[in-house]
Amino acid sequence: MTAHGQLERQIRSFTKDDFRRLASRIAEQRKVRGWNQREASQRAGIQPDRLSRIERGAEPGIDEAVALSRAYGMSFEELLYGAARAGDELDLLAQEIRSVLPPDDFRAILRIFRALVVGYRAQAAS
User: Could you say which of 5, 55, 58, 110 has the lowest number of CB atoms within 10 Å?
Assistant: First the structure.
């Protein structure tokens, strides 16, 4: 089965309550970033009125859900099911950075942070 087919199957198994929780996560992720619906919809490439309906519980299409997850810098699964540590500020910051930077720049920043961690560990060990 293709990746698109797997995603489709995941969404088709959702209940009305699942879509309400998804709508809440979509709106929450937008608000955490300080975006209004127009900005979020532009970043995701969907119409603002469509985002409004999705945030009120309308079933998003696969392409819309994938576009929103990319705009928010999170995996499709995180958007569908919620992050394990949804309140973790560092995770949210990383997601926001990922959503605004090109992938190469994001990887460069990760390398810098990893180097800092190695340096701090070495300093703490001495």
Answer: 5
